[in-house]
């Protein structure tokens, strides 16, 4: 399988909360971390999502916000993964940041160059990747 | 009308599924393809959306994921349009990919350069553009 | 607090509309403008969001669509802030546009270079920033 989504995390569906139009799907990764996705209810049904099913979460690099100091604030973004900056690749306007999680997984995020400067992002800095449950695409093997 | 959303697809509302906060709006394009949008219920009401109404879907280029091999996987992204890569414009970090659909419509997507390499994206390659229903903005003429 | 989200607007929660999975949260800014966010209901509860609570809205620059001519159209995007282009920084594929609102607040948006040309975006041009309620991340101080 090949997609342009730089972040593809595999795990098992661990919970589903039903809604009228949208459902909330929780995927537990092998290291115990959880990714929460909001998908339309018809997707839950057509993909056969239910607890125990193997599934993966796709998160595009541009949908991720990076945080360097989370002390004292709480965000509505359901997904927040902590790690250490591995690499920063600056461009003309945007930069790509690679974050290494404790599990060893790498997360790619695209942020503006100004944010790189403002946050002091560089290799070795502790940072978190936050993304909304509604940004996550869920996939299953057919 | 002028917006920075590179993808603007016009059609007619063909179905609406009501929810408490969000509604799911289906727009059928002239070539029979459908685009599904999730919008807040108050937008459905203020725009007067109902079956038969002319409407358009706005999808920003950075909200699109490209897939080159969909065999064997299924995604929760409700919108998946198939086509052929027309052009790739690489930048320092991101690249712009133009996809030509069977209908002749062009879809622009922004992905990272690394995805261009990983997926082997270049003119002539078959690819699909996937985007979530929650990414789609619906518009009507006043 | 440090995040890579270029747009951070502070205000007070002025209304909450409950749903089964998602809630709609309205934040009123000091100048009277409102930002609407859709967050999962569990976030509303864990953040203690209710009318009167201080909160801020985070909107990433790449989640914003710019409009230069809104006469004659209406969009489902719940958030539309009007202003004047302050600065355009072009890159290889994307450009960063800074919009100054009547309140004096600055909004940063990332759009493709082609949109800069199509819309004729340059300092002094009137433009609006549109973004979906589902794109907004809500935060509170702990």
From TrEMBL, chains A, B, C:
Keyword terms: Molybdenum
InterPro entries the record matches: Mo/tungstate-bd_C_term_dom, Molybdate_resp_trans_reg, Mop_domain, Transp-assoc_OB_typ1
Annotated ranges, domain Mop: 2-68, 74-140
PROSITE patterns in alphabetical order: MOP
Entry protein name: Transporter
């Amino acid at each position: 399988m090949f997609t342009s989504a730089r972040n593809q995390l595999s795990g098992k569906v661990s919970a589903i909360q039903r809604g009228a139009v949208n459902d909330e799907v929780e995927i537990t990764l092998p290291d115990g971390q959880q990714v929460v996705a909001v998908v339309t209810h018809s997707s839950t049904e057509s993909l056969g999502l239910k607890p125990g099913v193997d599934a993966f979460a796709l998160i595009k690099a541009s949908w991720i916000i990076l945080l360097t100091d989370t002390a004292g604030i709480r965000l509505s973004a359901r997904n927040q993964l902590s790690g250490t900056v591995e690499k920063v690749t600056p461009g003309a306007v945007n930069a790509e940041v690679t974050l290494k999680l404790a599990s060893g997984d790498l997360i790619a995020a695209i942020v503006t160059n100004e944010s790189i400067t403002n946050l002091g992002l560089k290799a070795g800095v502790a940072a978190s990747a936050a993304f909304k449950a509604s940004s996550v695409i869920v996939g299953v093997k057919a």
